[in-house]
Known about the structure:
Order of helices and strands: HHHHHHHHHHHHHHHHHHHHH
Shape: globular
Oligomer: single chain
Largest sheet: none
Number of domains: 2
Strand content: under 5%
Number of strands: 0
Amino acid sequence: MHVAVLSAVALVVLLIGAPIFLAIMAGTIITFEAFAPPIPSMVIPQRMVDGVNKFSLLAIPLFIFAADVIARGQIGARLVRLADAYVGHITGGLAIATVIACAMFGAMSGIGPAAVVSIGPLVFPALVKQGYSRGFAVGLIVTSSTLAMLIPPGVAMILYALQTNSSIGAMFLAGLMAGSVFTVVLCAYAYGYARMNGVARGAKLGWGQRWEATKTAIWALGLPVFVLGGIYGGAFTPTEAAAFACVYAIIVECVIYRSMSLKEVFFAANQSAGTISVLLILIAAGTALTYYLTLSQVPQQVTKLLSGASTIEVLLIINVVFLIAGMFVDPNSAIIVLTPLIYQAALAAGIDPIHLGAVIVANVALGMVSPPFGLNLFIGITTFKVTYREVVTAVLPFIGLMLLVLLIITYIPAVVLWLPGLM
């Protein structure tokens, strides 16, 4: 009864146009006052403060700031040039270079939409000029940008790890494996598309030109090397790595590449502050919701409801729930609200928590390009000046590819657990 009331209140608040964190809080507070045991109401704000009072949580805002700095600078352009220098001459080379550049950009930023804005305007005209259709170019860029959610340091991976008290390092390794599978599938599709449609190949560059492209990108490539190498080498924690990423990105863009001024860094910080504020409020609201659901034993009820289901069936239910959620809410909200509900049931079904995290993040990444409200769809509309219908039509084949990758990740756990298992 109380869950139905909570959901109804949240839905009504959403329908009147309120932010999702207000919808969560309204439903939580009303049902808490109406159905909870006699506990002081002050416990709700206390739980909200506890939810954001975590040292490890600092990694998220710091990586967001680093991503905004990178998105405003020249790192994206240098990555595109580097990837094109090495694979641009093969069939589908420019499209493959786009995928690789988005993957490398994701390894620096952890934020998907940043790749659309940073890399998209660089490669979109070149793709169309070389013979790729506008729809293919838009779909490829918008979809490839979601690699940033899987490849470390994906913010969604960090958020899941904090929600479940899982190892952030292990989640990063699982995400790296999942992102690698997705990258290979996208590159294979790009090759097949170019071959079937007779797309012209780019000129083959000499090793001197390739070395020049490598030199111009070497500082950009150093960011994921130092960040991930520092984490797994034991030099610093993920939170410290995030702080290092901010300093490194600012030094590279402002001092080495000289593509940004300190004033532009301030503007990037201002933009990041808005994003971070919304996310922290959402985490606080989600913590209050999780507390109330735990108090009401909702996760235990979900576990009991799914007790007779097999592991395959539980994974299927989880996929369906997160796929539907991803069509309507942002990835962070889906992870914060739904993970506490299904986590205990997944563990009871014998699902590894690291495997579960990879499955959930892959689902919300797919939600970024799924109609009707996938965030990347609207960023693509703004960036490439296309209509909503055009961008939805463009991503449909790529949604099919993402579903294939999701099936691989879901039902072949060794794909994502192999590398974490070596830790």
